[in-house]
Design brief:
single chain; 14 helices; TIM Barrel; 8-stranded mixed sheet; Urease, subunit C, domain 1; alpha/beta; 18 strands
Length: 457
């Protein structure tokens, strides 16, 4: 009798569970969709003809216009000046008391490749397996609907370089605007540069369960660095030989048909200097190592990171190597380094005549802080004008897009930010935002959460 009662209770419990499970799943799915609604994360704004009048226009590339007009039409800046009139039918924005800036550019991010780095592996597509992945393209993995896109652009950052990480050759970085429903709509240069993590001496030998981090003998660390460096040199040599074989077959079809190697195919334009390589390097010895590595080659090099780049400024300048500096928010390396050691680096690079820009080096969530990185640099030796250029015109020049972006000039893409103060000041508010000439709503995951809870009792 007792057994029959227990079986009945078990069947009743199972029935209740089966009834409740669909309800629970539906609730869970609706909750997920509510938190990740693409309509919130991808509002692409509206096109039109716009005239921003009576505003202070900070052109960056030229003199500031204290009271002028900027006209936006068909996605471009069609007129800018003190004596410009709004065209017939244009939507007029009164800029009295406001300032107009070009959209800022962060040349060191993984925007759209990482959503939640810890705990949600399905939202991370920033690296590939293996160490040599020249054929991996960031543009393929970028998520246009990332919540980080809106959060970043409403703070005045309109363009970024998004790059893969990991291995020795991580893959190809993409330059994108922070607006668009697809990767193609966002792309400015989908395959800008090849990310190479320049081999360095590391005495970190991994973790051992129960014993923690394991140090590596210094001599072994040097051997590991040298081996990785030789592998990298060999890959470049193989890419050049591969290209020659392909070209020979193209000229003479009687030759044996060459095998196709996607990695070698991808390496060729970078090894031949047709496209730039971005070498991640921080320490002086590694940066000098990059300089020595490219000597005698056609490689166009850019340094990413550049913590001690100013110490190798002469070599960088002589070899026309630019620096994307990503260490404003980093801590000093050595215990006896001054607290402002990293804040002063952009100023030292500028004084030495090295082409540079300031970037966050962040995967996505903190890219919105780009103006404050430049602001800190301006508080520690970099002039205010140079600080503004370091996140507008200078990154545009390094990324090869200064003919289209980085300043307010007739004919350039209308990436425009209208503010109520200095764009590098944390207290400044963005009042209007345009990307590709489209007026965008100033909403993001942050603003919607704020609106949801601001009146909560």
């Amino acid at each position: 009798m007792k057994l029959r009662i227990m079986n009945y209770k078990l069947r009743a419990t199972k029935s209740f569970f089966h009834l409740c499970l669909p309800v629970f799943i539906c609730g869970l799915i609706s909750s997920v969709f509510a938190q990740n609604d693409a309509s919130q994360q991808n509002q692409t704004g509206r096109a039109g003809t716009f005239a921003i009048t009576n505003a202070r226009i900070v052109t960056v590339s030229g003199a500031t216009i204290e009271n002028g007009t900027v006209v936006i039409q068909n996605g471009k800046i069609t007129a800018v000046g003190a004596n410009v009139s709004a065209p017939s039918g244009a939507e007029t924005i009164d800029g009295k008391g406001l300032s107009v800036y070009p959209g800022m550019i962060d040349a060191g991010t993984s925007m759209g490749l990482v959503e939640i780095s810890g705990g949600v592996p399905g939202s991370v597509d920033v690296s590939e397996t293996g160490t040599m992945n020249a054929n991996a393209k960031a543009i393929v993995g970028i998520n246009p609907h990332s919540a980080h896109v809106n959060v970043t652009r409403v703070n005045g950052v309109t363009t970024v370089l998004s790059m893969p990480v990991g291995g020795v050759v991580s893959g190809q970085a993409a330059v994108i605007n922070l607006n668009g429903s697809t990767q193609g709509e966002m792309a400015i240069n989908p395959n800008f540069g090849l990310i190479v993590n320049f081999p360095r001496i590391s005495t970190f030998g991994g973790f051992n369960a129960g014993a923690g981090a394991q140090p590596l003998d210094y001599s072994q660390a040097v051997k590991n660095r040298d081996k990785n460096l030789e592998d990298l040199k060999k890959m470049f040599a193989d890419a050049e030989n591969y290209a020659k074989i392909q070209e020979a077959y193209a000229r003479d079809k009687s030759l044996p048909y060459p095998t196709t190697d996607l990695k070698m195919d991808a390496m060729t334009p970078f090894a031949r200097g047709e496209k730039p390589m971005i070498f991640t390097a921080e320490r002086e010895r590694d940066i000098r190592g990059v300089v020595n590595f490219i000597k005698g080659t056609k490689i166009k090099a850019i340094i990413m990171g550049g913590q001690e780049a100013w110490k190798a400024a002469n070599e960088l300048k002589q070899n026309n190597i630019s620096v994307i500096y990503t260490n404003i928010y980093s801590l000093p390396v050595h215990n006896d380094d001054p607290y402002d050691y990293l804040f002063e680096a952009p100023s030292k690079l500028q004084q030495a005549g090295v082409k540079f820009c300031v970037a966050t080096g962040d995967a996505g969530a903190e890219v919105r802080d780009l103006p404050y990185h430049a602001g800190l640099a301006s508080a520690y030796g970099l002039s205010k004008d140079e600080a503004l250029k370091s996140v507008t015109l200078y990154p545009a020049q390094i990324l090869g897009i200064s003919d289209r972006l980085g300043s307010i000039e007739t004919g350039k893409i209308a990436n425009i930010v209208v503010t109520d103060g200095d764009i590098l000041e944390p207290r400044t508010n963005i009042k209007h935002l345009f990307i590709n000439g489209r007026m965008l709503p100033l909403t993001s995951r942050h603003t919607e959460l704020y609106d949801s809870f601001k009146d909560r009792k």
